[in-house]
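Schema walkthrough. Field components (list of strings):
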Amino acid sequence: DAGVIQSPRHEVTEMGQEVTLRCKPISGHNSLFWYRQTMMRGLELLIYFNNNVPIDDSGMPEDRFSAKMPNASFSTLKIQPSEPRDSAVYFCATSGASGNTIYFGEGSWLTVV
Amino acid sequence: SQKIEQNSEALNIQEGKTATLTCNYTNYSPAYLQWYRQDPGRGPVFLLLIRENEKEKRKERLKVTFDTTLKQSLFHITASQPADSATYLCALDPSGTYKYIFGTGTRLKVLA
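Field assembly_structure (string):
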């Protein structure tokens, strides 16, 4: 199993630009999470999907952030327009039917200058 | 407010000793608690899960305890090795809705 696959691994972009982060979950896992990690705030849950449906997006910081899961094998997190304070590591994670173990990708390291 | 607290200061111990990390939580009554390991530049990796009706859980050199009265979990690594150096995070699902909350993690360094 390839695990959770995220792209890009690293992105440097200018303030105001659109950023799209991508995630391929583990096959068969029906829950998908997007987390953001910073030194100051640790790991924060942004949004959670179950069976491709957004269940809880209360962690999405602003309207500039949006997430989609068009099918069971793909999800995106988009930031438009990006700001320097969005610089962080963004993790995609998934879990199976039991829901009590989360499998993380390697993260997308975003720097907004 | 709801939160999970882990010692933010790094823990340095000598190889061969037992490392003990603490996770305290407030305002929750979780059915279970998890521990993860995170290496620099990598995503967290699941290590152990302990349920509210379990006092202790073991896996090789790892041991986790869960005291729901104290609202605390302890994570022990016995016979520690330099390869155990990493950041360790605890996590719980406060409402049983898979909305996991993570502590900020404790960085462990095992000195050879």
